[in-house]
């Protein structure tokens, strides 16, 4: 991105943040704000309420009580900016990257499930629930955040994802939504300063493969996903996401 474009981009984002701060949540909608802030009054461990069903309409059971949101990004795709913007939406707090930490607990749970194949359904649900507890605690927003908004949806943005992690989300965090953030122009992405600093920077072709793989992972997850390429960052598009 050229310098002038970058300044313009930052200016537009600044405007959007200001607009969002004044927009506030809507009561009935399919976007993030209306669904995120709708489940108030349930404390740290909100049970599924009628309004809460908007976040994960097809989810049933205790595991659906907590809401999660994850940004699946391909790198140099504007994901930090996107995360900062999402964090302006009432009711949501996302952490930055964690070096694929979810993969650790996901891999461990997979091995426990395999080892306990003969155990009862109740035991299995207990395992899924206790893993959810760990992730929920782990994603507790910083206290300053709680000072100015009530957080009902927790999550993070990450560029490192694999099938094990997505399957873990399906099993243990079924009331989750994804934002898939990528770049349509992989040629420009491959020329980003970040990739230039790397010893073996991925070319446009490799980035294209990375993007396709991530897209397939998001599709296979079966979770509600909002597609947001960097090129489509715009005030109307973000309003559509935040609504
Ligand atoms: C995904 O990553 C985690 C942690 O790095 C690992 O334990 C797991 O085996 C990986 N799964 C796949 C399918 O590569
Ligand atoms: C990006 O924006 C263009 C033009 O508004 C639109 O046609 C396209 O569907 C969008 N792509 C995604 C993935 O949202």
Task: Provide structural commentary.
There is one protein chain. With 243 residues, the protein is α/β, with parallel strands linked by helices. It has a single domain (3-242), classed as Rossmann fold, CATH 3.40.50. It contains 11 helices and 5 strands. It has helices at residues 3-23, 32-36, 79-86, 101-115, 121-138, 143-148, 163-172, 186-190, 193-197, 204-221, 235-242; strands at 67-73, 92-95, 153-158, 176-182, 225-229. Helix 1 (3-23) runs parallel beside helix 11. The model is unreliable at 18-29 and 38-52 (pLDDT under 50). The chain binds 2-acetamido-2-deoxy-beta-D-glucopyranose (2 copies). Residues 227, 229, 232 line the site of one 2-acetamido-2-deoxy-beta-D-glucopyranose. Keywords: Membrane, Transmembrane, Transmembrane helix. Residues 32-51 are annotated as: Disordered. It comes from Symbiodinium necroappetens.
